[in-house]
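Field: sequence (string)
Field: structure_tokens (string)

Example rows 1 and 2, in order.
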Amino acid sequence: SREGAGGGASMNYSGETVFDVRERGAVGDGRALDTPALQRAVDDCAASGGGMVYVPPGDYLTGSVELKSNVNLHLEAGSSLLASTRREDYRPLDLGARDSARNYNPVHLIFARGAENVVLSGMGTIDGQGREFFGPVPEDSFHHSLKGWRPFQLAAFVECRNLLLENVTFRDAPGWTVWPLGCETVRIAGVKIFNNRWGPNTDGIDPDCCRDVTISDCVIDCGDDCIAVKSSIDKLGRGEKLACENLTVTNCVFSTSCCGIRLGFEGDGPIRNCAFSNIVMRNTRTGINVLVPRHVEDGLDIRHGPAVENISFSNLTMETVIPFFLWTGDDAARPGGVRGISFSDVRATASRGSFFGGSRSLPVEN
């Protein structure tokens, strides 16, 4: 049966109103720019009160698409969203002067801001076409050079609530892959990420200042941190009390030329109450990395470093160069620090040693 919202809406078996992007003009041949049709389907879905934006099999070339409350962007098996390589096809999401100072370009392929009940689902693929943004690997580096501009996140969600990413495959991100910032109640399940192993900054999932997060049953193979837990409170401008907290990562397989799991480095907010369990790492440089620095160069305005506390790691199997690297910088200051960390049931092979180091003013505690 047909519903009226926007024309071309129907009901699926679960009772959701479905908005087919082809019925709104999407071509899906990998050459025609399908951004307007995709955004029109999202807007019609949101205006009707919510439902599913259905992407059938095909290759959909697109720039930025903004998701909205109560919208499920569902990528059918055999469908692929291809990231445009043209800067003019992206919409900016201004996160303030800090990003400008670091020469980040705050544009994203899929994004939402201030939305709730947002879903990105299905067995389809989001292809960031990072290969088009990367140059050769210089002699003095093991990462590709950049040709110039690049969209920095494939999927960014800022101050959203009740966010679900399920089963989607991400490939060849030109920068970070999934970045929830300041979000609450986030579930990421069954997601697969396959990035260029030597692509610069090609992180997997970066929860940043988020609360109540579960990441499970994911496979991540990338060129930077598979999971990077951050607390960049300056990006949100909401004060030092904002934490990245209550996070669980379980039943995952990681492989990377950088860190399997990293906590800290970026931000001054607390990172606390996190559990990592049932994780396999293979062909990985550093297994567990916890960093509490203080630095103001390169546009990073980190005044004291995060407090990384009440963190547990259990049932880990790791094939690494360095299993553990926990470090507090000499210029870090309280309330930053590393305290309350536990490891249990860890089996690791390594070609180099591990390091646990505090500073004179901030020892690693408990």
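Row 2 begins here:
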Amino acid sequence: MSFEELLREGTRLNEELPGRRGSLVERTGASALVVVGDLHGELDSFKEIIEWVKDDRCLWLFLGDYVDRGAFGVELLTALLQFQLERPDRVILLRGNHEDWEINYHYTFADELRNKGLTGALPSLLSWYDSLPLAAKVGELAAVHGGVPIPVPEGIDELEKAKADDDMGFQMLWNDPLDESYWPRGGGTRPFDEGAMEAFLSLLDCRFLIRGHQYVPNVGYKVNFGRCVTIFSASYGMGWPRAFLYLPEGRIDSEIEAYVIRI
């Protein structure tokens, strides 16, 4: 399939995902679960994680930010879409803040498409962006790319109706936990504290919040409030530590850090 054809097939699969309700995908659980953070055009990081896992039972959950910064956004998207086509019920691709054409224009992916002669695929790319869910619930885990929207929605129906271009969806793509490393991003983004996280987890009846969005220097992951885990799976081309989450039994029976794999 061509790149454009893969995008169209990926859009269809996203719209037909089992458990999809608007911007939320819900699964009761998984025999095994892999959660992958930001990849930012790093095809080698994606391949290394696949090679490490080697577990055909897995549900794969990707937290967004597939393009920009790295030089192989097209190749990474191609590999991800083929990966999803091979296991359509076992791959959930969430939207990140870089799945946005305005962001791509100011970073690198717009130039990459032009340099690779693929600007004709732009309408299909934008449709694919819009087809990506903003949040997932897998058993006891809630997942978003960025963070908890403020104020926390009062009902799941509000979450299901969120869009990337409205305030709630924007915050789920951009917000960060309030800790010593917090740096305001501006533009309507907000920090979330432990109370907001607890309210969000209660809304979804979950124990843990899994997110990406923030590069964590020298480690690849961090834990806030005991139950909010940031996973970052790109090295920015510097060979810095990357991380992903692997639950071989699909659940968390000990400290969550025990399930973080660093590569």
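free_text_note (row 2): The CA atoms of residues 56 and 209 lie 25 Å apart.
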